[in-house]
Design a protein that fits this description.
The chain is mostly helical. The protein has three domains: about 300 residues, Rhopdopsin 7-helix transmembrane proteins (Up-down Bundle), CATH 1.20.1070; about 100 residues, no CATH class; about 80 residues, no CATH class. It is built from 20 helices and six strands. The strands form three sheets. A two-stranded antiparallel ribbon has the order 1-2. A two-stranded antiparallel ribbon has the order 3-4. A two-stranded antiparallel sheet has the order 5-6. It is elongated, with a radius of gyration of 34 Å.
């Protein structure tokens, strides 16, 4: 098979290697090179026009900043392929820049989706309470369903996308070294070819990155419908994934001898490079038009705001092509800075269930008023972080404390905190009232909002027991009926939290051991006063 077949000059020798100053298209027909140049000019012109429209209508910088960066990928791909046809020496460096930038585009598109939804905090609040999304087969065999409302899950998705940005520079450096030593052999699959191993690592990294991006997109697809995410996703995935697999497919065809000749070229490396570079030049105008449709400047113009402000063109360019925000976000994502359950937990909202609730309770979350309010217990190391105790020694001590706390199943108070909020004598306060600690504050233990599941009293003598028995035998005599269902709900909530912390509750919220837990239903007595639960020796308070 010969793709394509061009007339060959009989005086031209069969090339096995090209000169350093030549290109992959040195011996291709002039008309083919001219067509590649014309298509590249069209793609570049359409992209520049689209970017200019975005900069002249720069009304939403957080969104349009990412759009401009994504649209720059089309002319970069087209120009790098055209230059490679004429000069491999220049393409050697331009390809490295292009490879780095394509990794950056995937990360930028992920950030664009998050920005569409109002940022990470707004996104987590939107997803609060939604059921987890199962992974597709066969990933679901190894991984549990994904809860994107968990801030740590969202962080791991960001890291999965970002790892490609970190791996790609290493692959570029390795490619440069292999090309300099003559062992890269692009387009040739063999054990002694560096191209084989670079392709394997590259394919693994980009597949992981695009998988994380696709899973995130599946979780928020309904919320992204007003922003037309499908054409945007196809454009980004197409220009990166399609071009890569196109080069792999052509290399496989050449290796399988399905393509035996491209113009005067008969060796595998020249045929693969010449065919891939030519095809990319012809395909880029299609991608340029698709990007113009998917990322329209009119999407960021509010028709209801006739006099909406916009950035001047120069300031818009400076904002779009500045990368300080990217560098800062990369550092924060790698370190996990600012990510915690407490930082993203809504002040009010429904109860968490299942594994999400267990994780938050272990992180210090507690419910009050039957789940209507929340507060947080301090974890070991929190006070040190607030004091600014940083460094390797402080970090090591903090990790040891956190591991010990996790083993115990609860978050103990630090000595200073205990001295400040826990008192042996309830009359230690100046006003003489009895209070209990409530996540950094105090609350009245006699109020209706108290979460104390039970109260301990002195032993009840026989006379008091006899009085209680007589009161129960009286029956209904106009006494007010006491509804203790609210107290029972508080007790059950408290028992569940304690059971989770002590490992007695499974992932679905059921008891893992029968008979565990100390709570029993309080008797619904019609008498007013104190009643004794003879099964536990604990006295319950009836209102």
């Amino acid at each position: 098979m010969s793709l394509p077949s061009f007339p060959e000059d009989s005086s031209s020798p069969v090339l096995v290697d090209f000169p350093m100053r030549g290109g992959t298209g040195d011996h291709l027909p002039v008309w083919l090179l001219a067509c590649c140049g014309a298509f590249t000019a069209v793609a570049t012109g359409v992209s520049i026009m689209s970017i200019t429209l975005q900069l002249k209508n720069y009304r939403k910088p957080p969104l349009q900043r990412a759009v401009v960066r994504i649209m720059l990928m089309v002319p970069l791909y087209a120009l790098s392929s055209l230059i490679a046809l004429f000069s491999l020496e220049a393409a050697f460096f331009i390809d490295a820049v292009r490879d780095l930038y394509e990794a950056f585009v995937i990360y930028t598109f992920f950030q664009l989706l998050i920005t569409y939804l109002g940022g990470e905090r707004s996104l987590l609040i939107i997803l609060h309470g939604r059921p987890p999304i199962p992974h597709p087969f066969p990933v679901n065999i190894f991984l549990a369903p994904m809860d994107v409302s968990d801030p740590w899950t969202l962080l791991n998705l960001k890291r999965g996308v970002l790892q490609y940005v970190q791996v790609k520079p290493l692959l570029v450096v390795a490619t440069v070294i292999l090309k300099a030593t003559g062992t890269y052999q692009e387009g040739r699959f063999a054990s002694d070819s560096g191209y084989t191993y670079i392709s394997i690592v590259y394919n693994t990294s980009i597949c992981l990155s695009l998988y994380c991006l696709a899973m995130f997109w599946v979780c928020v697809a309904k919320d992204l419908k007003p922003f037309r995410p499908v054409p945007k996703f196809l454009c980004v995935k197409g220009i990166l994934f399609f071009s890569f697999w196109q080069s792999i497919f052509i290399s496989l065809l050449v290796a399988a001898k399905a393509i035996k000749k491209v113009g005067p070229y008969t060796d595998a490396e020249h045929m693969s490079l010449a065919l891939v570079d030519s095809l990319i030049c012809f395909e880029m105008p299609i991608f340029a038009i698709a990007h113009q449709y998917a990322f329209r400047a009119s999407d960021y113009i509010d028709e209801n705001l006739a006099h909406a402000a916009r950035l001047p063109y120069i300031y818009a360019m400076r904002d779009a092509f500045g990368f300080k925000d990217v560098w800062q976000d990369i550092k924060d994502t790698a370190r996990g800075r600012g990510v915690s359950y407490q930082a993203y937990e809504p002040a009010e909202g429904a109860l968490h269930y299942g594994a999400g609730r267990q994780k938050r309770i272990r992180a210090g979350l507690r419910y009050s008023r039957g789940g209507q309010a929340k507060y947080w217990l301090p974890l070991p190391g929190d006070e040190a972080r607030h004091r600014g105790d940083v460094g390797p020694v402080a970090a090591l001590k903090r990790r040891v404390d956190e591991r010990l706390a996790a083993r115990e199943g609860y978050a103990p108070l630090l000595p200073k905190q205990a001295a400040r909020v826990v008192h042996d004598d309830p009359t230690a306060h100046a006003d003489g009232s009895s209070h209990q600690w409530n996540g950094g504050g105090v609350y009245d233990s006699d109020s209706d909002e108290s979460d104390a599941p039970s109260l301990d009293f002195d032993s009840v003598n026989d006379d008091e027991d006899a009085l209680y028995e007589r009161a129960r035998r009286i029956g209904y005599a106009g006494f007010p009926n006491v509804d203790v269902s609210r107290e029972q709900k508080k007790r059950r909530l408290w028992e569940e939290e304690e059971g989770i912390l002590k490992g007695r509750w499974s992932r679905n919220g059921a008891r893992s051991r029968e008979g565990s837990g100390s709570g029993r239903d309080m008797p619904n007595s019609g008498a007013k006063g104190k009643g004794k639960d003879r099964g536990t020796g604990v006295y319950g308070a009836c209102e």
